[in-house]
Amino acid sequence: MIRSFERKEDEKREVRISPNYLENAHGSVLFESGKTKVICTAMLVEGVPPFLEGKGKGWLTAEYAMLPASTPTRKKRETLKTDGRSTEIKRLIGRSLRSVMDFGALGENTIYIDCDVISADGGTRTASITGGFIALVLCVKKMINDGIIKRDPIKDNVAAISCGVVDDTLLLDLEYSEDSAAQADMNVVMTKSGGLIEVQCTGEKRPITDEEFLGLMTLSKKGIAELFEEQDKVI
Question: Does residue 97 contact residue 133 with C-beta atoms inside 8 Å?
Answer without folding.
Answer: yes
